[in-house]
Amino acid sequence: MAKNNSMIRIVDELPDIKISKEPEDLLCYGFDASRIEGHARAVIWPRTTKDVVRVMQYAYQNEVPVVPRGAGTGMTGGAIPLNRAMVMSFEKMNKLVELDTNNLNVIVEPGLINGRLQRDLEHLGFFYPPDPASMNFCTIGGNVAENAGGPRALKYGVTKDYVMELEAVLPNGDVITTGVRTSKGVVGYDLARLLTGSEGTLAVITKIRLRILPLPEEVITLLAMFDNLEASGKTVSKIIGAKIMPRTLEFMDREAITAVERYKAVGMPKDVEALLLIELDGHPSAITKQAEKIAEICESLNADIKIAEDSSAREKLWEARRAISPALYNLYPEKINEDIVVPRDKIPEMLKGLRKLAEESGISIVNFGHAGDGNIHVNIMADKNDAEKYKKAKALVKDIFSMTLSLGGTISGEHGIGMTKAPYLSMELKKNEIDIMKGIKNLFDPKAILNPGKIFA
């Protein structure tokens, strides 16, 4: 009865905001790409900042937890409703509000799909560099919450490097605007930087000003194929050591290539140990010389090189890259996915260690990712139906994180902490550092109603 009364009350107090407690809505908004399932109290679809303010005021006064949600593409359970939280979905706040070409920035609402922004800007001769593999589905608000990266992060950086200004609603309903609309600004603490990557635990982001760039003149895409896994890792360091900065330098191992071809045949080579997808952009004459130098480096390590002849061939290669995650889920729906990062020159050692773990455990480990910045997506292929094997696979996570940290790396490059990595937080951070973060959380959210159960186990 209390549950029903609570729902009747919020519907009565917020009559002009779309709210649902239908079982199908609660089910659909109760899980994300992590495959973890939660149980929402209700689903709310705000259309304006004022709607968000009213929802948060109600939640604060009644101590009802709220989970902000983009498209649910997060991999660590960040959008899972815990403690019978209300899910606040931003899919109806999806506008490109303002395009300022003179100052190279845009204002967008949090529910705008990354890929839609990319297409709209490219049509006008501009681009927004952060390009997660899920860019055709994920939202800008979710990208900001997780500080998402993508293949182009090697040259252009991640989401935090493009967030200029944020409008956000605090747990008590107060609205703040933080950051600047200028290219420089150092007045006070950088709260925009703090909110970026905070996983929806500090404030609800309602508007985002992003820096954009002019489209590069030309793009060259190369595919380097290796019959030796470690050679592919060495190539990455050699390319950067040659003072060449590709815009992408992506890595796929043999198992990832095979999975893609089984899932969606795009003509990838099946008889290689690893491949690198390398892309350069800039002035045609400059990147042509760089492409020639990269080809020399790859060939010195016995790689075969192919160059995409046109935009159609280029898109086919990227289609294969973006198909890896769904391909692997198609094989093992319960696979364990981690996104560790190591220094570039430690990639060969990390890949060697991962292969050794796979051989010793008898569990397949599939690797791909952004080799240019050391970000490797490690996929432990296990099925929950085999309880013993799955338990063994879960135990490998700690071994992988230990190896990562011993090489000077970090346990999360772009997926955040959410729920799945929370038990391992203390492996990387000291107690006093975690206590400071908890203090910041308490300052913003003293009633602990905003995305509870995330980051801190």
Overall average pLDDT:
94
**CATH class bucket of one domain:** Alpha Beta
Named CATH architecture of one domain = 2-Layer Sandwich
Neighbour order of strands in the largest sheet: 15-12-14-13-17-18-16
Describe this structure in words.
The protein is globular. The mean pLDDT is 94. The protein starts with a helix and ends in a 13-residue tail after the last helix. The chain is built from 16 helices and 18 strands. It has helices at residues 2-13, 23-28, 49-62, 114-123, 140-146, 153-156, 191-195, 229-241, 254-263, 284-300, 311-322, 324-331, 347-361, 387-406, 425-428, 431-444, and strands at 18-20, 42-45, 66-69, 86-89, 96-100, 105-108, 126-127, 163-169, 175-179, 204-211, 213-214, 218-226, 248-253, 274-282, 304-307, 336-341, 365-370, 375-380. 46% of the residues are buried. Among the domains are: 2-89, Uridine Diphospho-n-acetylenolpyruvylglucosamine Reductase, domain 2; 96-214, 2-Layer Sandwich (Uridine Diphospho-n-acetylenolpyruvylglucosamine Reductase, domain 3); 217-309, 2-Layer Sandwich (Alpha-Beta Plaits), CATH 3.30.70. The chain has 457 residues and is α+β, with helices and mostly antiparallel strands. The chain is 37% helix and 21% strand. It has a 7-stranded antiparallel sheet, with helices on both faces. Strands 5-6-10-8-9 form a 5-stranded antiparallel sheet. Strands 1-2-4-3 form a 4-stranded mixed sheet, covered by helices on one side.
